[in-house]
Each structure stands twice: as C-alpha cells, then as structure tokens.
Amino acid sequence: RCFVGVVLQSVETDGALTAGSRIEVVTRGLVTANVHDTTVAGSQMVISAVAGQLLLKVAGTNLYPVAAIAAEADTLNFAKVYVLSSF
C-alpha cells in the first residue's frame, strides 16, 4: 500500500467514485477526512484496511508511515487532518 492523499471529490459528471473515476486529491495540507473513531488532536494517522479511512498509528502494530496528523478530535468518524506529503 502507498498513501498518496485524501480524496476531496469526484470530478466525473455523474459524481461516480469507482475504479477509474477522475478525482480531486489533497496531497499535502489541511482537509476533513474519514478517521478512526478514537482520533484526538495530535494523533498520528496511517492508512487502514478500511477503504477510505485513516487509522491511529500504534507503536509496534502499524508498520505504515505516518500519512497525516489529526488537527482535532473526530466527530462521527470525521476530523480535520494535516496530510503529510509522501513524495
């Protein structure tokens, strides 16, 4: 797995978000993202097995690099995060 960024929206005329759809992606900066439900401000986030969701980094268990830092606690699994550039 390789983290590139957080999807903002589909740019397809029908709004589709399927394989091959054109999308807008935030590759660095502040964005609202789908996050694990125990996220707090300052949490380090990594990619998850749940499609489209960032997961809390837990020492020794998540071997993926940090993809984002939470700027706030989650509300119903959404929080502002600062996406870290991976390239």
Q: Please mark out the parts with pLDDT under 50 across 5 or more consecutive residues, or reply none.
A: none
Instruction: Compute the CA-based radius of gyration.
Output: 13 Å
Helix content: under 10%
Largest sheet: 5 strands, antiparallel
Number of helices: 0
**Order of adjacent strands in the largest pleated sheet:** 3-7-6-4-5
- Our estimate of the beta-strand percent is 35-45%
**Quaternary state, please?**
single chain
What is the residue-averaged pLDDT?
92
Global structural class: mainly beta
- Can you write the helix and strand succession as a string? EEEEEEE
**Overall 3D shape:** globular
How many β-strand stretches? Answer: 7
Describe the protein in words:
The chain is mainly β and 87 residues long. It is built from no helices and seven strands. The strands form two sheets. Strands 3-7-6-4-5 form a five-stranded antiparallel sheet, with no helix packed on it. A hairpin with a 7-residue loop joins strand 6 (68-70) and strand 7. The radius of gyration is 13 Å and the shape is globular. The two termini are 14 Å apart. The mean pLDDT is 92.
Write the layout of secondary structure elements.
Blueprint: E1 6-10, E2 23-26, E3 29-34, E4 44-47, E5 54-56, E6 68-70, E7 78-83
Antiparallel strand pairs: 1-2, 3-7, 4-5, 4-6, 6-7
Structure summary:
By secondary structure, the protein is an all-beta fold. The protein is 0% helix and 36% strand.
Any descriptors?
0% helix; 87 residues; globular; five-stranded antiparallel β-sheet; two-stranded antiparallel sheet; mainly beta
